[in-house]
Design brief:
mainly alpha, rod-shaped
Length: 151
C-alpha cells in the first residue's frame, strides 16, 4: 500500500475529498524537492571528491620530491641500524663480550647497505666499540670476565 492510497482512504473516511488535489500537489512537490535534494547531494559529493583530488594533487605538487617506496633491502638495512644501536646499548650493561661485536658487525652491514638511519648505525658502531672497551677495563681490573655488582 502506497502513501497515496493511505491518504485517499483517510480522506474518504473523514470526508475530506476536497483535499485530494492539495495532497496530490503536496506529494508532487515533495517528490520534486526530494529529487532536487538528491541531485544537490550528488553534486556536493562529486564536488567534495573533486576538491579532495585537487587538494591531494596540490599537496603532492607543493611538497618536496616524493620519496620512492623503500625497497626490502633498504628496510632491512634500517632494521640492522636500529638493532646495532639497541644491542650496543644493552651490551654496556650485560653480555658485552657477545653484544659488542654483534653491534659492530650489524652497524657495518647497515652502513655498507646505505641505510637511511646512518646516525643510528654510527651510534650502534660507537656503542659496540664502547662495549669492548668496558670489557677490556673489567678484564684488566678483575683479571677475569666477571661483572661484580654490589662490591
Amino acid at each position: 500500500m502506497t502513501l497515496t492510497d493511505t491518504v485517499r482512504r483517510a480522506e474518504h473516511a473523514v470526508g475530506l475529498a476536497g483535499l485530494r488535489g492539495r495532497t496530490a500537489r503536496t506529494e508532487s512537490a515533495a517528490r520534486t524537492e526530494g529529487a532536487v535534494r538528491t541531485e544537490s547531494a550528488a553534486r556536493t559529493e562529486s564536488a567534495a571528491r573533486t576538491e579532495g583530488t585537487a587538494r591531494t594533487e596540490s599537496t603532492s605538487d607543493a611538497s618536496a620530491p616524493e620519496k620512492a617506496p623503500r625497497s626490502a633491502a633498504g628496510r632491512e638495512a634500517d632494521g640492522l641500524a636500529v638493532a646495532s644501536f639497541v644491542l650496543g646499548l644493552v651490551g654496556l650493561l650485560v653480555m658485552n663480550i657477545l653484544l659488542g661485536p654483534t653491534a659492530i658487525v650489524m652497524a657495518l652491514l647497515a652502513l655498507a647497505r646505505s641505510t637511511g638511519r646512518r646516525g643510528r648505525a654510527l651510534l650502534g658502531l660507537a656503542l659496540g666499540v664502547a662495549d669492548l672497551v668496558v670489557l677490556a677495563v673489567l678484564v684488566s681490573a678483575n683479571g677475569a670476565v666477571v661483572w661484580n655488582v654490589g662490591g
